[in-house]
Amino acid sequence: MGRKVRFAAAALIAVATGVYLNNTSLLAPHRDGKPVLLAHRGMAQRFDERDVKNDTCTATRMLPPVHDYLENTLRSMRASFEAGADVVELDVHPTTDGEFAVFHDWTLDCRTDGQGVTRAQSMAKLKKLDIGYGYTADGGKTFPFRGKGIGMMPTLAEVFAAFPDKKLLINVKSRDASEGEKLAGVLNALPVARRRAIMVYGGDEPIAEVRRLTPDVRTISRAAIRSCLIRYIGYGWTGLVPAACHNAMVLVPVNVAPWLWGWPDRFLGRMTGANSAVFVLGPYSGGEFSTGIDTPELFARLPRGYSGGIWTNEIEAIATIAGKSKD
């Protein structure tokens, strides 16, 4: 019995040692360099995020503005890149006249002087709206951007033309598979090198279509995020990378990251080998995957020398902390 116990113990130690050596970052190559910064919504007006739901009008919850940039505008995107962003995120909706409008909300009523569902409008009509109309930081007493956002809603084509060599993340706001098919057609019309600098995320159905029709574009959806991370936590110790983590934008909440086998360097290396890009988000608590690394305290939770991606709503502040500010 004693010999069997010793053998079992030795085998267990050998397995544990193998798992450790296969996953420790101490033996993994470290990728030098500064982190890759993703500006969520570009330079945007911040708002009170407490108890925000999908249908909350965030423009009426605006915090006192510290700049005059409005999200999803060419001006905002340009300022984000100038502040140190490597990637800028933008939201799209198809229009009735064959374009993709770059705008966040499902409806127009919150931010603009228009009404109705965004995707039910023509781009010609959307171009006439004031996208700064609804912003207020004092309960509707004043509207500091009213009249200043007329004609500022761009098309996706205009974004591509304005930033021909910049990395972009496109957010598909619907669950409509046909929207993914249409976006794939737009992406496939781009040169290969340009297409590979673009990532797409959003609803499961349209993203499945983009992934099927444009296999060289990195994608992620809510279901794919969960599948990737849960499966990797389950068997990533073997070195195998789940299919959902391949050719993907891998979003990692900062409080989930320590549970990932080989975090950070071994994990980053495996994802690079799967042609995927990793971006760390703010803490996940069962809600939306949309909080960012927005404060010095959250940035401090990243590993020393971390050179992967960071998702942030505060590009100016985080670029300065990360040493990427261009001022």
UniProtKB/TrEMBL annotation:
One of its GO terms (molecular function) is phosphoric diester hydrolase activity. Keywords: Signal. It holds the Pfam family GDPD. CDD domains: GDPD_GDE4_like_1. InterPro entries: GP_PDE_dom (IPR030395), PLC-like_Pdiesterase_TIM-brl (IPR017946). It comes from the Bacteria. Residues 51-322 form the GP-PDE domain. Residues 1-21 form the signal peptide. GO terms for biological process: lipid metabolic process. The keyword Signal applies. This is Glycerophosphodiester phosphodiesterase. It comes from Bradyrhizobium arachidis.
